[in-house]
Amino acid sequence: MAINFAFIEGKYNGSAISILGRNKVSSQIREMPIIGGTGIFRFAKGYVLARTHAFDIKSGDATFEYNVYVIHY
């Protein structure tokens, strides 16, 4: 899975964190690496813990929680 968290307000406005990794939905908690970012998060590293709170197979709607642990310079 590839995902970018883009910030649009506050001191992180215009910056983003990039995540790339396996998101095995059948696992209760998934760990994925932060591979970089833009703006204030340039050269960022860290990891994300993802958890599924709800998933509706019929509609495809889902609610996820992402706990992000990031180091940036």
Automatic annotation (TrEMBL):
GO-annotated biological processes: phenylpropanoid biosynthetic process
Record carries keyword Secreted: yes
Keywords linked to the UniProt accession: Apoplast, Secreted
GO cellular component term, pick one: apoplast
Entries under Pfam families matching the protein: Dirigent
Transmembrane segments: none
Main location: secreted
Subcellular location: Secreted, Extracellular space, Apoplast
Superkingdom, taxonomy of origin: Eukaryota
Entry annotated with the keyword S-adenosyl-L-methionine: no
Stored PANTHER family: NUCLEOPORIN-RELATED (PTHR21495)
Family: Belongs to the plant dirigent protein family.
Subunit structure: Homodimer.
Function statement: Dirigent proteins impart stereoselectivity on the phenoxy radical-coupling reaction, yielding optically active lignans from two molecules of coniferyl alcohol in the biosynthesis of lignans, flavonolignans, and alkaloids and thus plays a central role in plant secondary metabolism.
Protein name as catalogued: Dirigent protein
The species this protein was found in: Thalictrum thalictroides
Classification lineage: Eukaryota, Viridiplantae, Streptophyta, Embryophyta, Tracheophyta
